[in-house]
């Protein structure tokens, strides 16, 4: 591997890490608050990409506006999911998870039937041109994903630790009953968590839309990695999810560059197995997976 | 039970050849769903059961092709192969519970599937294995024909379900349910939780492997896509729709979904949407599945005393769930 490929791979790793982090924090947040395990999270990501396709590539809306619209629209889907699926199945984690398996099928069919299956959607690159770093050419479109995604993750951290509602969310994650005794509404908190989770998945999908194959089934690959990241990070831990996302972003990109994507997925699962055997609570988790 | 067997013996003679093929798949799916039910009695909802079925299918196909072994040898050995792979899977999986088990099993199953995709020799890569040898003949019976294959599958299904039922009703089966109901309590009365979860998983894998062997030799071609997450979700739909408290549940689930599956054939692209909606609907409105309706029917139309005892059982099962 020469210097140019190396720098290129570092940049790609950072892009992958930031996207994994944005997707995985939402998953970890939902799981932390009332154990909402969302299998349709990958499809939320896919819907975010499609919103950008419709608004930006077809509708001609400026790219940043389309991204923000994707964030809010998928966030609404998250709220609906919470109300329609997670609230009625709250006593049973697995029922909620399995029901979202059904939701992912529904979303795939709806998107596929409305905008067509098979063909990849063409989305023009909003930010042309490349930056030259140490001889490697890296597209601006990729580079803007990194601060965008990590900025949103930092914003979530700030929200959870400094804002009243965010603190309430963390209280609810630690002990729902004690939180309820303090006057925190569990229903509001689960809705808030799913709204944020949906918004973040939509944002990740929107940012990736110009540099990723947009198909109704693009969520599958994302959800597998996001699940592995969340398990390795320690289930309900946001910090753990970010750390594991960075780790897997680098592993996945470098193994893909050296071998191929199939081997990269296999290595990812292998790392998860090693972590589970060596430290069942995950990297930063306190709860057993 | 006997009535059901009689119906299953007569049914193929009443329907066309195409439907006999569907009945064969139905029986294979019953073995699969029943073996999955055994795994779930400990509370471990595995997401790699379909892949373990695939392990059996690949194992049987490889043995038949490269060693030329007959089906009566490859089918049990396919079960053993799936069981051994299941034993390898369950070691890291034991460290997880509930949701963690769900997704870790998904990832581990995906690993084996990726091996099939990656390794072209002997697994055939993404396009899988074709020209898997037919079972051949036994005396004058040619198993290439649908009817002999159907009755052989029926025999194997009955045997598998019988064994699974014996396990379920034994002390081992009680230990599984104790782990589901209250793991800490089970551990404190001396049940080795890890050991019993392993037993349930490996026995489930064994029978899934046999189902896989039956599938491989009927379809004559298998590919990694047959055992992917989508099909795993269908397996979950069967057991959710039917219920897992009794042995009737998975059979009802597979039967109902197979019928709906055939009905919705003209609406091919929309089909996953129906099944997604069915899954969500059942989980929210009828979480204990169609089998929980049986006692209600019996109470209305049949013997009151029998209905009462069944209802009590169902309530007990619901509480443990």
Tell me what you see in this structure:
- The complex is a heterodimer of chains A (289) and B (321).
- Chain A has one domain (3-216).
- With 289 residues, chain A is mainly α.
- The mean pLDDT of chain A is 87.
- Chain A has helices at 3-32, 41-58, 63-86, 93-115, 140-162, 164-174, 176-181, 186-208, 219-233, 238-258, 261-278; strands at residues 130-133, 136-139.
- Chain A has a two-stranded antiparallel sheet.
- The longest helix of chain A is centred in the first third of the chain and has 30 residues, at 3-32.
- In chain A, helix 5 crosses helix 6 (164-174), helix 5 (140-162) runs antiparallel to helix 8 and helix 10 (238-258) packs antiparallel against helix 11 (261-278).
- Chain B has 321 residues and is mainly alpha-helical.
- Chain B folds into 2 domains: 16-227, no CATH class; 229-321, no CATH class.
- Chain B has 14 helices and 2 strands.
- In chain B, strands 1-2 form a two-stranded antiparallel ribbon.
- In chain B, a hairpin with a 2-residue loop joins strand 1 and strand 2.
- In chain B, helix 2 packs antiparallel against helix 9 and helix 4 runs antiparallel to helix 9 (193-219).
- The longest helix of chain B is centred in the middle third of the chain and has 27 residues, at 193-219.
- Chain B is globular and about 55 Å long.
- Chain A binds chain B through residues 31, 35, 37, 85, 88-89, 92-99, 101-106, 108-110, 112-113, 117, 220, 224, 227-228, 230-231, 235, 262-263, 265-266, 268-270, 272-273, 276-277, 280, 288-289, and chain B through 45, 91-93, 95-104, 106-108, 110-111, 114-115, 117-118, 229-230, 233, 236-237, 240, 269-273, 275-280, 283-284, 287.
């Amino acid at each position: 591997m020469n210097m140019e490929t190396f720098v290129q791979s570092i940049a790609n790793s950072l892009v992958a890490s930031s996207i994994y982090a944005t997707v995985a924090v939402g998953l970890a947040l939902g799981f932390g608050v009332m154990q909402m395990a969302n299998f349709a999270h990958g499809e939320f990501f896919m819907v975010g990409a499609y919103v950008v396709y419709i608004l930006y590539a077809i509708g001609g809306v400026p790219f940043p506006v389309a991204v923000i619209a994707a964030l809010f629209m998928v966030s609404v889907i998250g709220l609906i999911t919470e109300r329609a699926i997670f609230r009625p199945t709250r006593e049973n984690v697995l029922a909620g998870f399995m029901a979202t398996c059904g939701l992912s099928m529904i979303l795939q069919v709806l998107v596929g039937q409305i905008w067509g299956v098979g063909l990849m959607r063409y989305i023009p690159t909003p930010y042309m041109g490349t930056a030259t770093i140490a001889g490697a050419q890296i597209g601006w479109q990729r580079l803007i994903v990194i601060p965008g995604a990590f900025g949103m993750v930092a914003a979530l951290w700030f929200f959870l630790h400094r804002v009243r509602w965010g603190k309430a969310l963390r209280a609810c994650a630690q002990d729902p009953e004690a939180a309820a005794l303090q006057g925190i509404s569990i229903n509001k908190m689960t809705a808030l968590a799913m709204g944020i989770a949906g918004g973040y998945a939509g944002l990740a999908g929107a940012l990736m839309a110009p540099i990723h194959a947009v198909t109704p089934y693009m969520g599958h690959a994302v959800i597998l990695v996001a699940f592995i990241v969340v398990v390795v990070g320690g289930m309900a831990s946001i910090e753990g999810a970010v750390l594991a996302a960075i780790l897997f972003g680098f592993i996945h990109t470098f193994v893909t560059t050296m071998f191929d994507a199939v081997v990269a997925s296999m290595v990812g699962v292998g790392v998860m197995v090693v972590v589970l055997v060596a430290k069942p609570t995950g990297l930063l988790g306190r709860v057993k997976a | 039970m006997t009535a059901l067997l009689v119906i299953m013996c007569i049914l193929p003679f009443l329907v066309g050849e195409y439907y006999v093929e569907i009945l064969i798949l139905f029986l294979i799916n019953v073995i699969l769903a029943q073996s999955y039910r055994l795994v779930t009695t400990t509370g471990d909802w595995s997401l790699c059961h379909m892949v373990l079925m695939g392990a059996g299918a690949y194992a049987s196909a490889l043995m038949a092709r490269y060693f030329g072994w007959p089906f009566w040898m490859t089918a049990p050995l396919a079960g053993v192969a799936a069981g051994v792979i299941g034993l390898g899977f369950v070691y890291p999986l034991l460290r997880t519970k509930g949701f963690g088990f769900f997704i870790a099993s998904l990832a581990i199953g995906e690993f084996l599937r990726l091996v099939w995709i990656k390794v072209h020799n002997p697994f055939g890569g993404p396009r899988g294995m074709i020209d898997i040898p037919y079972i051949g003949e036994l005396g004058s019976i040619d198993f290439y024909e649908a009817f002999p294959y159907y009755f052989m599958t029926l025999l194997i299904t009955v045997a598998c379900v019988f064994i699974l039922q014996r396990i379920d009703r034994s002390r081992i089966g009680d230990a599984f349910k104790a782990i589901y109901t209250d793991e800490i309590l089970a551990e404190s009365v001396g049940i080795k939780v890890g050991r019993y979860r392993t037993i349930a998983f490996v026995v489930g894998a064994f029978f899934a492997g046999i189902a896989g062997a039956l599938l491989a030799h009927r379809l004559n071609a298998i590919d990694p896509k047959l055992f992917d997450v989508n099909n795993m979700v269908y397996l979950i739909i069967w057991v959710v729709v039917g219920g897992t408290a009794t042995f009737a549940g998975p059979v009802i689930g597979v039967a109902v979904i197979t019928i709906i599956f055939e009905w919705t054939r003209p609406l091919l692209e929309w089909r996953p949407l129906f099944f997604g909606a069915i899954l969500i609907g059942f989980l929210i409105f009828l979480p204990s599945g169609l089998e929980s309706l049986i006692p209600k029917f019996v109470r209305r139309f049949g013997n009151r005393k029998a209905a009462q005892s069944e209802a009590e059982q169902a309530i007990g099962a619901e509480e443990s769930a």
